[in-house]
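Colleagues,

Please find the record for the two-part complex below.
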Amino acid sequence: MDNHLRDKACIVGIGQTLYTKRGALHEIGALKLAVQAINAAAADAGIDVADIDGFTSFCQDVSTRPPYDLTMALPTRNLRYSSIVWGGGGSGLPTAVTDAAMAVTSGQADFVVVVRSISQGAFRMGGSWADGYKDGLPLNTAHAIPMGFVVAPAIYAMRARRHMAEYGTTEEHFAQVAIHSREMAATNPKAVMRRTLTVEEHHASRMIADPLRMFDCCMENDGAAALIVTTAERAKDLAKTPVYIHGTSTKSVHRWSNPIAYREDTEYLASSGHAAAAEELYGKTGLGPDDVDVALLYDGTTAGLLLVLEDWGFCERGESGPFVASGGIKMDGRIPTNTHGGNLAEVYLQGANHLVEAVRQLRGEACNQVPDAEIALYSSGVGYPPLGGVMLRR
Amino acid sequence: MRPPEVHNRPGGMPLPNTDAREAGMWSAAAEGRLDVQNCDRCQHHRNPPSDGCPNCGSLDWSWKTLPGTGVVMTYVWIADPTRQPGEWPSPNYNVAVVELDGATGGPTRIVTNILDAWLPEDLQVGQRVELACVTVAEGVGVPCFKRAGRIG
């Protein structure tokens, strides 16, 4: 399988803002948060922020400020490239990275920043979908909202229930994911939720979309993260050890056009829809799950992380519950996973924070460092296409 | 007690869209039928409605009535914020994904409510269900379901 992007582009800089609970950075706002993260990433890379000449992002919403706003607040010399992923929502990050890599390897731009900034002071990502559609319901949820399918965790809960019925997965298994995420966050000074969690506390938390409880769900946060992508040639002269974009895939499984379980083959109901992306990305890179040293997996919910683990082959289909319960995702397990705490406990930046952690791991700068990590995998979660994965190496 | 006339549906939800692509399903449901889009060229069914056929690409389609039976593939329970404590048999409504019998092509599923399921033990993956439409406005029905005996 051809892999034209293999190691031709690198992530050379990472930047983050303060991460807080929802609304706490409202006064700063999503635009300034994005600028702060971009400045931090440029400083990390050792480049002049004015040399950033391309911008990519994903998940278009009211927090997404376009490059024409960003470049009013940055000393950008030349704006040569900008794009935002068409569709995908929070699953769109692998496409944004692909876009950045394509832009720099084709010479369309020299330094492309991938940025995601969220400020939920004026809107809420975890609220009900039942309100606010004056001009009719959006096509993708028009037949679900009138039935009460109005909270994002229901997307995951549907698949979690199916997984429980097919494979005997339990709420105890979900709890183990949440507990692991909190354990990782406890030693991460950037993390929002650094308090550890017990099974009892998990089970006592409020039911959101049965079988998923509050502590199964990701947080709602304010913050921003940015990553700078350039060519491997330019990367050699910069401040930090380059992290190579070894391959990406943005392919979803057959008939996966909506995460609400409408059309895909029955075998994919209890999945995150990443089996095709995994096959393609492993094929492109010649790697398999055993070659991955650290996995950063989008965790919109605990159950979602279980499904992603299976899709990428870190355990057998249906075995993710026992796999996690036996320590499979811990630092000394088969695949150390979300070593920063993920969307569940570090910050909900829809995977931008996961990619930042992947870079930290491959540089040897992580708070929960996997010894001598060489290969990191990022995967998006249960969601709209384009979804996918990114393989990084040092 | 469970008054038989009470349906387990969520309160405060918006009405369905009633544009040309959508209206046929709701008007059929108001008359007690389950009408689903069917491609005029390849005869594959599809739901939710779309402008073109995801199997063959044809833009020509018709509403076709399905038997109205199916099987629960998965479901969730969600607390209904409009319910007062003790007013209903349960504080929770369900949302179920039902795979429809009689559809041609790939799996054809609907997101719906199982009207007579109130408690966790009332609903399981694999539960057979049958159509039980609920009229929500003049000429606008929604295809809901009730349990139909055996686990299939």
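Residues 29-45 of chain A form the longest helix (17 residues).

Comments are welcome before we finalize the supplementary table.
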